[in-house]
Amino acid sequence: MVRETLAEYFGFEEHGTDLRTEIIAGITTFLAMSYIVVVNPAIMTFFPGEDGKPGIAIEGYTPGEVQQMLTVVTILAAAVAIFVMAFYANRPFGQAPGLGLNAFFAFTVIGQLGVPWETALAAVVVEGVIFIILTAIGAREYIIKLFPQPVKFGVGTGIGLFLGIIGLQAMGIVSNDPETLVTLGNIASSPLAILSVVGLFFTLALYVRGFPGSIVIGIITTTLAGIVLTFAGVVSPGVVAGEFVKNGSFQPSALTGAQYDITPLFGAFIDGLQNVEGLTFALIVFTFFFVDFFDTAGTLVGVGQAGDMLDEDGNMPDIDKPLMADAVGTTAGGILGTSTVTTYIESATGVEEGGRTGMTALVIGILFLLALVVVPLATIIPLYASHIALVVVALLMLRNVVDIQWDKLTHAVPAGLTIIIMPLTYSIAYGIAAGIISYPIVKAANGEWRDVHIGQWLMAAAFVLYFYIRTSGVLEATV
Question: Where does the sequence pass through the membrane (predicted)?
Fold first, then answer.
């Protein structure tokens, strides 16, 4: 009875899926993005000392307690957005506080600009309310439809490369280099990298064989292998399994004894609204708004392309609904006490497993809520294991490149810039910006200026303005 009800509500038959596929897809996406439960609180929390970092600090609470509060807030904000995605949008996307935006919140807004964290939260709430209004009147959907076709078709491949470099770095296969920026990691001398490589090829072998749930199995198997190697004494605790082994017992090292009282964070934005300096606050809201808008738009289009959810013009039908989930999530996140919520590119892992409806999102949301009960255990999956999924999906998303008209330079240039700028700047929004700025320029240079919509010129101008504000020091100068 329950199976039939879910099938009818989410439209399994219409979307060519079933309950088992949707559950596996939801688990896959959750495992791929569950790292945010640990990473977001770590970025957002103020840690004093010589090697400290800026972020949220609450009088009367230790950094550890604030970090635990933020863990709970991260989970709740993600769940709110994901349930709107599931029941209202009926799309298989996972959402949570966004990486990059949380770093801007902590390091730039609080650290460099010296803005109180309560005011930074107020900026997030204002941004979310603006998003809700723009989504409700159809403005966000209209703007996304103005994206040039080559940019839309380049987003998927760009996200693939972006996912690839994120995953390979977490796995120790690619590492930082002061001269070449990135280089090959010391794989042979790194147990973590060796285990990652074995886990990756094991997962790929399962996937090409068409084994159901291959990505989930690969992630879990790699995680268990790391724990077994640690228990067996092959590697020291903390090398491949975190500090899960201490004195012969199983002891997760991160965020034990979670602090569930979030009242110091909840509603703090109200105090922040009373401490607003007009121009600085407006520029902060503008930055949050711009990056979140185009990150979410790019993710929806790119992952939608991978899941064959776009129409012949590269548009996602009813995209206003998943956009509303993003807007509601951002507003709720700011009220609860965290930075901007956005749609995760890791959603591509679940889509590749066959997830096509809100049932996938429902599973993701439920798993996030379950993580509240076992916050310490929610961090068991290490980054190198969960990010195997990103590399697998990266390889699969590269096939989207065939949709681009490479023999037509007015398509190849904006599509190519969209693709290469994403991984090189670690930003979906910047890749889209490069494509949108270049499109009207190359079209006009080729005598095709009549094909460029006035809205596309305006978007290009807006991106130029954004980059000026973001990179010229204007924002810092207003403080």
Answer: 23-47, 67-89, 96-114, 120-139, 151-175, 187-208, 215-235, 281-303, 359-378, 384-402, 414-442, 454-469
Domain coverage including residue 46: 2-477
Query: CA 93 to CA 33: how far, in whole Å?
Result: 11
Element (H, E) at 243: none
Query: What span, in angstroms and rounded, lies between the C-alpha atoms of 170 and 164?
Result: 10
Distances (CA, A) of 247 to 236, 237, 250, 251, 377: 12, 10, 9, 9, 19
CB 222 within 8 A of CB 388: yes
253, 248, 288: which is closest to 123 by C-alpha? 288
**What whole-number distance in Å separates Cα of residue 147 and Cα of residue 314?**
9
How many distinct structural domains can be found in the chain?
1
Confirm whether pTM is higher than 0.85: no
Residue 475: which residues within 8 A CB-CB, separation 6 or more? 108, 113, 280, 283, 284, 287, 469
Query: Residues 1-24: pLDDT tens digits?
Result: 788 999 999 999 999 999 999 999
Q: Angle 409-414-416 (CA atoms, 0-180°, nearest 5)?
A: 85
Place of tokens 């957005």: 81
Phi then psi for residue 56, to 5 deg, are -80, 125
Closest CA to 30 of 260, 186, 273, 220: 220
Strand partners, 47: 53
Calpha distance 43→53 (Å, rounded): 8
Q: How many whole angstroms separate alpha carbon 121 and alpha carbon 55?
A: 12
Rounded Cα gap, residues 192 and 196, in angstroms:
6
Nearest alpha-carbon partner for 150 in 435, 447, 479, 473: 435
